[in-house]
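Q: Joint fold for the lines below.
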Amino acid sequence: MTAPAAPHQLLILADRARGRGALAAQLDALGYTIDLLEDADQARAALADPTFDLLLLDIQPPQLECAAILAQRKADPRLRYVPVILLAERQELAAVEGYLPLGADDYLTEPFTPALLQARLAAYLERRRLITQMQEYLPQLREMEKLTRDLTDIILPLGAALAGETNFDRLLERILVEAKAVCNADAGTLYLRTRDDALAFAIMRTDSLRIAMGGTTGQAIPFPPLPLHDPATGEPNYHNVATAVALTGRSINIPDIYHAQGFDFSGTKVFDQRNGYRSVSSLTVPLTNHLSEVIGVLQLLNAQEPGTRQVVPFTPYLQQVVESLAAQAAVVLNNQILLQSEKKLLSIERDIQIGQRIQASFLPDELPQAPGWEIAAVFHPAREVSGDFYDVFTLARNRRIGLVIADVCDKGVGAAIFMALFRSLIRAFAQRYALGATEILAQEPPESPADKRRRAAVGDATALKSAVLFTNNYVARNHSQANMFATLFFGVLDPASGLLTYVNGGHEPPVLLGAGGVKAHLTPTGPAVGMLPDMEYTTRQVEFAPGDVLVAFTDGVTEARGPDGGLFGDERLYTLLEEPTLSAAALLARVEADVRLHTQGAIPSDDITMLAVRRGADAVLSPKS
Amino acid sequence: MDITGESRELAHVVMISGSLDAVTADQATSFLSTQIREGHTHLVVDLARLEYVSSAGLRVFLTALKEARQQGGDLRLAAPHRNVQKVLEMSGFTSILKLYADLDAALASYTP
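A: Joint structure:
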């Protein structure tokens, strides 16, 4: 149940002489905090600085016009959703009718009984609470939508496209050009770290001056590299913004470099003077590889308003987007740098390493846990990445847990990049729809607990289905050439009710185990994800009883090969799973040990990935949904 | 894995035997792609001797299916072992392509 809230503040503008003093006393007795004002100036001041939740307005307020108060309320956006209820005598209903179109929400007539008052006020206060809550979600929803859009339209395809770019100069150019486009920035420079501790200018662009140097232009950049440390003293060079970013590994966002403290922009100023340019806003982000080494620095200059081309600072949001882009670019760039500098390394070996790094970087460091539940995972990559991944994340403000296990149908770098794509898409789409569906649906009272649970479940199903459909269509349409798909199980768990809503896109059926053995096989509800657009997926639900465990796995477990080539097999797995267990982690450890026993002496051919979710036997769960 | 092609009256039959997995997928994909480019757009893949297919192996079918359909043809499967059929069903391949119990039925399906 919800915690008792602070008492609601009611403002009453009325004349005590009209019996409103008694009304105030009644409301006070009902637990509301009351402010009764009779004076016109005080009333205006109270409206100008609104701290109340609801206004009770007598249609004959002393010394001031009811219409004027309603007009003041209408003009102030802060008061737009504060309910206004008119107070009147029975014989004054004609006047009330005149005031209702001016923005009053309702009216009460004498005699005011406590039951009537409470019912009427509670309904309006609840409505106000809901509206306020919706308003709070709106910016989040918008931000999420924008991030999802940018992520799916720009960043992820760019990551995948960059991965296919084998010409080093063209790769550099694309990173810079795409980053500039995201921010609508007029200029930008990409620096690469050199072997002798400096940042070299790799590529430069200033659109308004039609300057393009480095990269595929064939025009050399005439500026010398920037040393990261003073060659004489060895002191780190924090004066230059690019070298400072390279040294600290942190982005630096400056609204106007001519007013920036602590950095030496003399080089930029000389450039400005020679070219009749004015550098204003600057965003400088590191390109960091998997070892947290800065391999390059991306500097963008002069973000512009899309329409007016007026130069503006880089917003924190843009910084976030550019940092995501830089993270993707760094993976590919590092790949290329390795390629250039370590040509001796066999290409297969290199691909294996890169694939493993990408895969490792995308698996969750920590699994979210809910009280009364245990979530455990096991992941052993084969020597060559074979496309397994799992993900566990919270949704709908920690009230749901998303569970994903999947197998991308490829190996090596290709699988790793698509793994990242599938994971990001499922997360982004699920967050977006969970906010839209679960949150707001679940908020809408009044309804019975059963009703509420049903509606919440509908919200979960909508979020799930949308996430899988969109991911399927996204991959099938935008990466049709790659013919890449994943078998993917995606479940949304409501820890409070024990209800798991899921879509199984062509994946090995996870198993729900109870005291008596297997309770359910969560068989596919649609095809593998990403094969063709517009495939159909349905959602299903299962309920965890206390003590139940769900085990999801990939075919790397059942198809693990022994030295004689024999498969581990479904039956051996189910036999192991049916033995009683007190913990999800112990169950997975048991399976893992037996798979290892089976594969002893053989080369591991596939990833081994398992995810287990156990509901605690003692139901210490809150009844709240 | 072994892969061979043979033209019949109604369709071109490709026989894959052994194990279709990450190791053999590339070879199978390029074989099928060559057949399609040579004009064999109506294909039946005979699975009677295919013992094992992994998810990377399934991708071979998806790639060839899309290529064949782009050329106005199709790719249909015939005579899968039980374990192969199970994988095809589970992954939803049976909802995107046609599967027949034996080669003759698959060939007959191309009867104009």
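Q: Anything notable?
A: Chain B has one domain: 2-106. The longest helix of chain B spans residues 55-70.
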